[in-house]
Design goal:
alpha/beta, two-stranded antiparallel sheet, 6 helices, 11% strand
């Protein structure tokens, strides 16, 4: 059975890329007698407002797309809002950290972007691994004291093919 989803970030007005993805997934589901699912990728707490969600629903309804399962309709595989799935994600993050498949990284988004730009200027290859190696206990302590959540990064071994 075919199951496809449309999972926009409700952060503003719909754009042509959103409409295209929704339409293609909808038509693919209908052509294959499958299920078209609407899930909200609403983890951007600053921009994912109820107004933006309402606007997105109006827009895809205006396009004539009706979903079979998901936000506002329910189904067997919910919840259908990403922010309501955080406990599920945290469970698996804990497993990845415990098994050593991921690690915490104590840099802000702005710091990472600035460092990445500096690497590009010098034509060096940017690597999260290098950031982790340069991380200090003081930096980790400062993040924790300020209540800043570290990023979780997949651990990728050097010179190993990822499949």
């Amino acid at each position: 059975m075919v199951r496809v989803r449309y999972a926009p970030s409700p952060t503003g007005e719909i754009h042509i890329g959103n409409a295209r993805t929704a339409l293609f997934n909808y038509l693919f589901a209908r052509h294959n007698k499958g299920t078209f699912i609407l899930r909200l990728d609403d983890t951007d707490e600053k921009r994912s407002t109820q107004e933006a969600i309402d606007s997105m629903i109006r827009d895809i309804t205006w396009l004539g797309l009706d979903w079979d399962e998901g936000y506002l309709k329910g189904g067997d595989f919910g919840p259908y809002r990403q922010k309501e799935r955080i406990d599920i994600y945290n469970h698996y993050i804990d497993i990845l950290l415990q098994k050593g498949y991921a690690y915490e990284l104590y840099y802000t988004d702005e710091e990472v972007e600035s460092i990445r730009e500096e690497y590009e200027k010098t034509l060096k290859t940017f690597s999260y691994r290098t950031l982790k190696e340069n991380e200090t206990e003081e930096r980790r302590r400062s993040f924790k004291e300020k209540g800043i959540t570290p990023a979780i990064v997949f651990k990728v071994e050097e010179n190993k093919e990822i499949v």
